[in-house]
Design a protein that fits this description.
The protein has a single domain (4-197), classed as Maf protein (Alpha-Beta Complex), CATH 3.90.950. It is built from 5 helices and 7 strands, in the order E-H-E-H-E-H-E-E-E-E-H-H. The chain has helices at residues 13-22, 49-64, 98-108, 175-181, 183-197; strands spanning 4-8, 28-32, 68-77, 118-128, 134-145, 161-163, 168-169. It has a 7-stranded mixed beta sheet with strand order 2-1-3-4-5-6-7. Strand 4 and strand 5 (134-145) form a beta hairpin. Helix 4 crosses helix 5 (183-197). The two termini are 15 Å apart. The relative contact order is 0.16.
C-alpha cells in the first residue's frame, strides 16, 4: 500500500534535518522542496508566525496539489518587547549570519540583569489540506538570553538561548535532546499526533 505524501515547505537544511528526525514516527512519504523542482518565489508578507507559515504552505500546496506543512519560527525577547519575533531570520539584513545576529542581540542586552532577560522560541506549523483547510500547531520553549554564546550544536540563536530546567543553552544540547524539547519539536509533535488521528 502506497504511503500518503506530506510536503515539507522549507529549503533550510538545518530545519529540514530536524523535521525529518521529528517526523520519523509518521507513516507518510516525506517530500521536500528539493523533490519538486522549480516553484514560485514565496514572499513572507505576514505580520504573525501563523500568517507567514500559512503563506508558505498555501503557495506550495497550490503548486503541487500535496498535503503541505510549513512553519515560521523566531525568538521573542521580553526586554526588547518581543523583538526580533517574525523578523528573526531577516532583521540584520539578508547577508548577515547568525554570529552577527547573536552579537547584535547581546549588544542590545548588555547590562540587562538575568531576571529581565526572559525570552522564548516560538514555532507555528501550518498544515494546508487538499481542500485548502488549514490546521495550526504551536510550540513554545521558554528560556533566557545569555550574556555570551555557548555551545557548538544547533543553529541560529541556539548559542544564546539558555534553558534553566536543562541548565544548558540550546546549542549545548545533543541533536536528540533538542528535538524532543524545542519549540519546533513541540509544534510538530502536535502535528504528528493530528495526522495519526486523521486520515487526510
Amino acid at each position: 500500500m502506497l504511503k500518503k505524501k506530506l510536503l515539507l515547505a522549507t529549503k533550510n537544511k538545518h530545519k529540514l534535518e530536524e523535521l525529518l528526525y521529528i517526523l520519523k514516527p509518521i507513516n507518510r512519504e516525506i517530500i521536500t522542496c528539493h523533490n519538486i523542482g522549480d516553484y514560485p518565489d514565496i514572499e513572507e508578507t505576514g505580520t504573525t508566525f501563523e500568517e507567514n507559515a500559512w503563506i508558505k504552505a498555501k503557495v506550495l500546496a497550490d503548486f503541487t496539489g500535496l498535503l503541505t506543512v510549513a512553519d515560521d519560527s523566531g525568538l521573542e525577547i521580553d526586554f526588547l518587547e518581543g523583538w526580533p519575533g517574525i523578523a528573526s531570520a531577516r532583521f540584520a539584513g539578508p547577508q548577515a549570519g547568525f554570529v552577527e545576529k547573536n552579537l547584535t542581540i547581546l549588544n542590545l542586552m548588555e547590562g540587562v540583569p538575568k531576571e529581565a532577560r526572559t525570552a522564548r522560541f516560538v514555532c507555528v506549523a501550518a498544515l494546508v489540506r487538499r481542500d485548502c483547510r488549514t490546521e495550526f500547531f504551536k510550540g513554545i520553549c521558554d528560556g533566557f538570553i545569555t550574556s555570551s554564546p555557548s555551545g557548538i550544536y544547533g543553529f541560529g540563536y541556539d548559542p544564546i538561548f539558555y534553558i534553566p530546567s536543562l541548565k544548558a543553552t540550546m546549542a549545548e544540547l545533543s541533536f536528540e535532546v533538542k528535538n524532543q524539547i524545542s519549540h519546533r519539536a513541540l509544534a510538530f509533535k502536535k502535528l504528528t499526533s493530528f495526522l495519526s488521528q486523521n486520515d487526510i
